[in-house]
């Protein structure tokens, strides 16, 4: 299956066919991870566990910002 890179505002992107999205259980607003591999790119649905861990880390870093800054000295 071929897709074309298109200009979208100041960026560029591709349109993923609806049948592919349906098959993978994806919809508008879902987050994908992008990885370069063997001269190409790979798109994967974001792992919910990783997203939750990053959210928890951000909350912790905000809460303990002063202490982390002191520890970094």
UniProtKB/TrEMBL annotation:
Q: Does the record's keyword annotation contain Lipid biosynthesis?
A: no
Domain SpoVT-AbrB residue range list = 3-48
Spell out the protein name for this chain.
Addiction module antidote
Name the SMART domains on file: SpoVT_AbrB
Q: Which Pfam families match?
A: MazE_antitoxin (PF04014)
Q: Which organism is it from?
A: Rhizobium aquaticum
Q: Which UniProt keywords apply?
A: DNA-binding
């Amino acid at each position: 299956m071929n897709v074309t890179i298109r200009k979208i505002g100041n960026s560029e992107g591709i349109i993923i066919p609806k049948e592919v999205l349906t098959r993978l259980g994806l919809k508008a607003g879902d987050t994908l991870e992008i990885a370069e591999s063997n001269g190409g790119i790979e798109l994967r649905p974001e792992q919910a566990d990783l997203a939750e861990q990053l959210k928890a880390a951000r909350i912790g870093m905000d809460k303990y910002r002063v202490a982390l800054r002191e520890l970094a000295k």
